[in-house]
Write a structure and sequence with these properties.
This protein is mostly helical. Helix content is 75%, strand content 0%. The longest helix has 57 residues, at 15-71. It is rod-shaped, with a radius of gyration of 32 Å.
Length: 119
């Protein structure tokens, strides 16, 4: 040894590795977006089904009342009962929507934290 310092520098081309990592990240993002869209679609389908049932009942009760009134042969008690049932179904649809609103509000990452109730 003659006392001189020697340095060894090694350079490795990581371009392909960085490109592969970026592609993997993009694929993961697309996969997550697809999963979210599928979930939203399933939720929308379930919600539509849940709301459609009371709406169909309301329509049926109301059409029954209309037919009876048009026929001229109606009983006030039967009409009242049908209209009460129609009202109950409207309230049912409202409760479904309220539960969805509460769920969305509680699940929202942007919603403010609940206020403390300490005295």
């Amino acid at each position: 040894m003659d006392g001189r310092s020697v340095r060894l520098h090694i350079a490795t081309d990581i371009t392909d590795l960085k490109r592969a990592e970026e592609m993997s990240r993009q694929h993961q993002e697309k996969l997550q977006m697809t999963a979210r869209l599928i979930t939203v679609g399933e939720m929308a389908s379930t919600l539509a089904h849940e709301i459609n049932q009371p709406l169909a009942a309301i329509a049926n009760y109301n059409m029954g009342c209309v037919r009876r009134l048009r026929s001229g042969q109606w009983d006030a008690g039967e009409l009242l009962q049908a209209m009460e049932k129609s009202g109950e179904q409207a309230e049912r649809a409202g409760r479904i929507i309220q539960r969805v609103r509460e769920f969305v509000a509680s699940a929202s990452p942007l919603s403010p934290p609940a206020a403390s109730t300490k005295s």
